[in-house]
Amino acid sequence: MKIDSTLRALADPTRLRIMRLLAHMELAVGELAQVLGQSQPRVSRHVRILCDAGLAERRKEGSWVFLRSAVGEHRAPPLGAAAATLLAVAERDDAGFAARCAEDRRHLAAIRAAREASAQAYFARHAAEWDTLRGLHTPDQQVEAALGKALGGDLGALLDVGTGTGRMAQLFASRSAHVTGFDKSPEMLRLARARLQDLPPEQVELVQGDFTALPFAPGGFDTLLFHQVLHYAQAPELVLAEAARVTRPGGRVAVIDFAAHDREELRTQHAHARLGFSDEQMLALLTDAGFAASAPIALPGKPLTVKIWLGTRTAASHRAGIAQETAA
After folding, report:
1. What percent of the chain stands above pLDDT 90?
2. 30: nearest Cα among 18, 16, 20, 44
3. Topology (CATH) of 3-110
4. pLDDT tens track for 208-227
5. Bridging pattern class, strands 56-61 and 64-69
6. CATH topology for 135-327?
7. Model confidence over 288-310: pLDDT tens digits?
8. Of 4, 61, 98, 286, which Cα lies nearest the Cα of 188?
9. How far is CA 267 from CA 101, 209, 322, in A?
10. Contact 111, 27 (CB under 8 A)
11. Which of 43, 85, 228, 266 is 20 to 30 A from 253 via CA?
12. How far lies 166's CA from each of 152, 161, 180, 304, in Å?
């Protein structure tokens, strides 16, 4: 970041308002336009200036473009952190600016409500099929309690792969320094965004992509979750290899999935690529990826049993993975 471009980017009332809005939550360009009462092309121009100055970040998610602040407390360079502090002080000490920001936040409440209404409508449309699937296995609350106990306290930087509606990210956010929810589906990420929108924006990030090619640097996460996700993988060995790549040495992966079963209808009705996993299969998958596996936890249901498999990333395999990437 440079001081001249930073000051030029902030030298506009609309861009000051945008930065204060992004301090509260990630927003789509269209949502910003709605709050600001301006046209989307005009808001897009302001957004481009802020992004070029390094004050905000754009992220495409399907046909939507989302904006987040790039100057959160834990992630900004010193100049960016100073800019964020300046804006916070300005809202506190400048009565006119404070009134404008308060009005913007009132409009922001409508965005939150619209997201929640959209999520509720989605759940209503799919409630019957989800209830049918839930009826086949251990109750969710029992699985979540067992997973929480197995993971323990401090989860560090958490990556929830296949975050879906964001339930796991929400459940474990209080134990995590930072949570990244990752999913291939833009619709699911919109549901997760509605669920997680009350968390501090600097604590949570939602990213779209494919779990066979995670868009993250090596060793960036302390804990990875695959909650009822791996049975969708055509090649689970590739998915877990990617998981190992982005897990720091000593970090952990938790795979929560079905034990091997014969319910063929799950392939056609719910697009399951795998009818669960045996302990032998999962041990081989984790070991080959570079995780030292722990004893599995079984949660019997009728007729499906849920298993929790845990693995710890070994330092030797981490070094080997780096060497392979360097050679490539």
Report:
1. 61
2. 44
3. Arc Repressor Mutant, subunit A (1.10.10)
4. 999 999 999 999 999 999 99
5. antiparallel
6. Rossmann fold (3.40.50)
7. 999 999 999 999 987 889 999 99
8. 61
9. 50, 23, 36
10. yes
11. 266
12. 20, 10, 10, 23
